[in-house]
Design brief:
Layout: E1 5-10, H1 24-41, H2 46-52, E2 54-65, E3 74-83, E4 88-97, E5 102-114, E6 119-120, H3 124-131
Antiparallel strand pairs: 1-3, 2-5, 3-4, 4-5, 5-6
Length: 140
Amino acid sequence: MADLFQVRIAVRGYELDLQGHVNQAVYLQYGEHARWQCFLAAGVGPDTLVRAGVGPVVLETTIRYLRELRAGDEVDVTCRFLWGEGKTFQVEQDYTRADGVPVARVTGVAGLMDRATRRLVADPAGRLRELATDPSWLGV
C-alpha cells in the first residue's frame, strides 16, 4: 500500500468570505482537487475514465470544521478511500494547516458510474484497479 496521499494547497484571497476565512464551498473544491490529484497519482486521469466509460460520483459529503483557514495559510489535504463489497465506497479527507493544526475533516460516500447506463458500477474497486497504473494510491 502506498503512503497516505496528500496535497498542499495555498489559500487565495478570493476564496474568503466576509468573516475573512475560507468559504465553506471552497473546502469541497479543495477536497475535489485532492481526490483528482490522487487519481492522477494512481494513473487514472479523466481521459482514462472517459475511454473506459466510467466516472466517479459523489453521493454524500459531510464537513466537520475544526479551525479557521485564512488568507496566506497553506493546507495539506489527505485522501483515503475505504472499500467495501457494494457499489459505493467511503472517502476520508483530513485538512491540516502547514503548521500542523487540524482544520477540517471531510467524509463522504462515492461511487463509480457507468456513463452509458447511468448506473453505479457493481465493483468500483475492481474496475479502478484494472484502470490504474499504481492502484495502491487508491487503496485497491
